[in-house]
Design goal:
This protein has about 190 residues and is mainly α. It has a single domain (about 35-190), classed as Actin-related protein 2/3 complex subunit 5 (Serine Threonine Protein Phosphatase 5, Tetratricopeptide repeat). The chain is about 55% helix and about 5% strand.
């Protein structure tokens, strides 16, 4: 009987998780030009100016630039944060309910959840407000120069978190109320990044 040197066995080759390289598990997307993302941001701002926050949010969530570069993805994040900050807190649940009841509603709320987590990560990484969100001396945050009127617009006074985090947490709570905790699980296991 021959002796086997177990220290020389490549255990990674025996792991079924390593049977497929990460490149095969991560879907490839067509590149998205920064100009297309800027055009979508302009379209969403026009909808906001007309007072159609729901259409702006739905349009932004339907046109996720998965194939965009980092700059384009940050621009789209800023657009979504601007839209979220413009929606009154009393309108959050009705808007989310209508989006959720649409044919692609589950996917759209999962995308929103991804952006909420990305915004929270940016907020914590910079220890300031999320890109595009500024905090005024009053402790109330606003997005892209639009003033916030306090809690009625989903913007709470700051408790040391810059105010931007409270907007994201309010939306997170409402998304979980409408879509359930399954949305969190789907976002955490999805390899597509926003």
């Amino acid at each position: 009987m021959a002796q086997v040197n177990y220290r020389l066995i490549d255990v990674d080759a025996l792991d079924p998780e390593n049977a497929f390289p990460a490149e095969l598990l991560t879907p490839q997307f067509d590149p998205v030009a920064i100009g297309d993302i800027q055009a979508l941001a302009t379209q969403c701002r026009q909808l906001l100016q007309r007072g159609d926050q729901e259409a702006a949010l739905q349009s932004a969530l339907e046109n996720v630039p998965y194939g965009g570069d980092d700059q384009g993805k940050e621009l789209h994040l800023s657009t979504i944060l601007e839209i979220l900050s413009s929606i009154k807190q009393a309108e959050m649940t009705p808007i989310l309910t209508r989006i959720y009841s649409s044919p692609a509603g589950t996917e759209l709320l999962d995308v929103l959840m991804k952006y909420l987590y990305k915004g929270m990560a940016r907020h914590n990484a910079s220890n300031t407000a999320t890109p595009g969100v500024s905090v005024h001396a009053t402790g109330v945050s606003s997005v892209s120069g639009q003033g916030g009127g306090g809690r009625e617009y989903g913007v709470a006074p700051s408790r040391g978190d810059g105010g931007g985090m409270s907007v994201l947490l309010s939306w997170h709570e409402k998304v979980v109320d409408v879509a359930g905790t399954g949305s969190i699980v789907r976002v955490m296991t999805d390899r597509r990044t926003v």
